[in-house]
Amino acid sequence: MSQHLLQLQGVSLSFGGLKALDNVSFTVRPGEIIGLIGPNGAGKTTLVNACTGVHRPSKGRIVFEGMAIQGLPAWRVAHLGMARTFQIVQPFPRMSVLDNVAAAALFGGGIRNMREAREFAAAQLDFVGLEDQAGKPAATLSLAHRKRLELAKSLALKPRLVWLDEVNAGLSSADLDNTLSVIRRIAARGITIVMIEHLMKVVLGVSTRILVLKNGALIADGEPAQVISDPAVVEAYLGAHYTQDGERIHG
Ligand SMILES: Nc1ncnc2c1ncn2[C@@H]1O[C@H](COP(=O)(O)OP(=O)(O)OP(=O)(O)O)[C@@H](O)[C@H]1O
Ligand SMILES: [Mg+2]
Fold it and tell me: Could you tell me the CATH superfamily of domain 1-72+194-251?
């Protein structure tokens, strides 16, 4: 197998006259935890959508495990082993939390019967710390809990790569350590992660590499320490210097 899990070559995507992605190229190797950062409107979610079959790129190639996947429908991409969470969460509102995850397991996790699907779903809820919400209708969850439900649903697809689109939004800073631990435990399951995240403490706490998007273009790709001290990244996004632990340096 190729040493690249995912490879983007010159991917562009326009919405009318707006170039949301502009000639983006990078590779993801198995086992990486990549932090994808950039200002609001930079194209981060659009990049996830382009890679997971929601939007078809206008140009370029996307290769996942050696197979060109640009333009494939979202369900095929999910079946091939690439999952994602949605920034705007949309569970089946009246279905229980458990059955929302079981539905994902039946759909993409290769599980054929409901009993097994619910067992597997319960394990995913346990994993993200949502086991005590399992019987509730999904619509009754708080935003932070709906974000975790998204995570459990994406894990139920048994992915080899997962895109996490702001899964931590709405979490209190007290939940931060727990969040970091969940991300590390996902990685420990052998799942490669590309994480969109605004909290630099989280990004720097777990990322093995950082990508920076600005106006649809990739302006940095490298080791966290190198990327956060890059003047172009400080100017475009960070607005300040950070230590490698994610503490803002004042002055
Ligand atoms: N379906 C769409 N139709 C038209 N324009 C879109 C669509 N989706 C995104 N855009 C535009 O593309 C650009 C990139 O948006 P995107 O949502 O990818 O940014 P983002 O980096 O995820 O931002 P945020 O940090 O706010 O989530 C923005 O200008 C946005 O308005
Ligand atoms: Mg977004």
Answer: P-loop containing nucleotide triphosphate hydrolases (3.40.50.300)
pLDDT at 6: 98
Q: Measured from the CB, is residue 42 less than 6 Å from ligand 1?
A: yes
Atom of ligand 1 nearest to the CA of 48: 18
Cα separation, 86 vs 146, whole angstroms: 10
Give the pLDDT of residue 2: 55
Residues in the chain predicted with pLDDT less than 50, given as ranges, are 1
Phi, psi angle pair for 161, to nearest 5°: -135, 135
- Atom number in ligand 1 closest to CA 46: 18
Contact 244, 229 (CB under 8 A): no
Residue whose pair of structure tokens reads 């950082």 in the numeric block: 210
Q: Domain boundaries in the chain?
A: 1-72+194-251
Q: Has this prediction a pTM greater than 0.85?
A: yes
Residues whose CB is less than 8 angstroms from the CB of residue 202 and which lie 6 or more positions away in sequence, other chains included: 168, 176, 179, 180, 183, 195, 246
| Residue 145 phi, psi dihedral angles, 5° rounding | -70, -35
Indicate the top mutation candidate among 11, 13, 18, 37 to test ligand 1's pocket, ranked by most ligand atoms within 8 A of CB.
18
Give residues with Cβ within 8 angstroms of 16, minimum separation 6.
Answer: none
Q: What is the pLDDT of residue 132?
A: 96
Q: Give SS3 for 141.
A: coil
